[in-house]
Structure formats: structure tokens, C-alpha cells
Amino acid sequence: MAVSLLAHAHYAWLVTASLLAGAVNAVASGGSFISFPAMLAMGVAPVQANATNTVAIWPGQLTSVFALRGDLRKDLLTVAVLCAISGGIGGAEILLHTPQSMFLHILPWMILAATVLFLFAGRISAWLKRGASHAHKDRPISMIALTAMLLPVCLYVGYFGAGGGLLIMAALGVLGVEAMHELNSMKVLVACIANLSAVVTFVVSNSVAWHYCLIAMVFAGLGGYVGAHYARRLPAAAMRAMVIAVGFAVSGWFFWVAHTRT
């Protein structure tokens, strides 16, 4: 009886976490900090939980690409797409060949780093906006430099991904993509393709816990729809604060779990 109630409680938490993750991603980003631990709570091994979570939250990115397609930098598309595909596949393959115990020890550091990155996202965005006020529209961007900056970021997106969008924007901003609408559209496209490449890799390698993935996918999509609908009515600052608090709490919990399993 107690085991049955616990199993139902885990499902209830997966549904709730997926709804929250979809809503948070629509408002402030960072929903993986909520949905990924819920996958682990279902008893999915860490590497498979990360793969399953990536597949579950990807469809919501596709609509954003369609909405922002008019702002894409056409001159950067070929290299950006190639980096996203190769980086997404490479990162996913590295993840699948990472031992569960090693990933469990790396995981809290990645979550902590992504949380700190999210914490300072406003300052980084302000820096990018200051650069936009001194735009050099004719400044050429080296495709070699673009590859060197973007490929490692896409590897990270395929491997874990939390905070990857901000890293993409920072890399493009350093190279001279200065208009915020172009930065945002390119970020969405690169992240979407890198995650799609990872998704295909995870599916082909049979690394997805589909029973949990489909539940999370449905409710994350619902949460994303509701979150997008009410995004302007919700206090974004409070949502960001919640994401940061959850990120620090989750990283601390995984530090404790990794320590107890050594």
C-alpha cells in the first residue's frame, strides 16, 4: 500500500514538475532545473534521465524558431546549423558514453554553473545591449572564429544544455552579432537544432524512458502554452528568483547525493 502511494506521488510530482518546467521556460527559461530532478525521482538513471528530459522539452522550442525566423542572420546560418548538428550529436554521444557514477559527480557542478550563469543573465544581456548601441553593421564575422566559439557551446548543449542559450548569445555577441533580436533568434535556432540532434541520437540509441517522456512532454507542452498565454501577467522577477533558488537547491542536493555515494 505504501509503495503504491509512493509511486503515485512520484507520478504526481512528474506531472507537476513538467507543468512548471513548461511554464517557467515560457516566462524566464530554466525549466530543466525542475523537470530533470523529477525524472530522477521516477527512478530513471542519471544519464537516461537527462536524455529523456531533453526529448520531453524539445518540441516547445520548435514553435519559437518559427516565430522568430524573420530575424535570423542569413550569412551565419550554414556554419551555425553545422555547428549545432555536429555539437548536438557529439555532446549526446559523450553523455551516452559517460559512466552513470561519473555523470552523477559532474552533474552538480554543471547545475551550479548553469544557475550562476542564469543569475548573471541580466548583466550579460545588459552588456550585449550596450554593444548593440554601438553597432557595426558592416563588421564581417569570421566563419572560423564562429565555428571555434559555437562548436564547444553546442557540445555542451548536446551533453547537458542548461544555460546553453545564454552561452550561445554570449558567443555570438563577442563575435559581433550586436542586435538583440538577431541574437535571440540565432540563439533559439542553434539551441533547437543542437537539441534536436541530441534527441535523434538519444532515440536511436534507445536511451529514452518513453513512458515518462510522453507524460512530461504532454504536460510541459501544456505548461508552456499556459505560461506563454499569461507571461505578461506573471511577475518575471519572481519566476527568475524561483528558478535560481531551485537551481542552487538542486545542485546542493546532487552534491550531497554524489558525496554519499562515494
TrEMBL record:
Membrane topology: Multi-pass membrane protein
UniProt subcellular location: Cell membrane
Entry's transmembrane regions: 12-34, 76-96, 102-122, 143-176, 188-205, 212-231, 237-258
Domain of life: Bacteria
Record keyword Membrane present: yes
Family: Belongs to the 4-toluene sulfonate uptake permease (TSUP) (TC 2.A.102) family.
Species the sequence originates in: Terriglobus roseus
Protein name, as recorded: Probable membrane transporter protein
InterPro entries: TM_pro_TauE-like, TSUP
GO cellular component terms listed in the entry, alphabetical order: plasma membrane
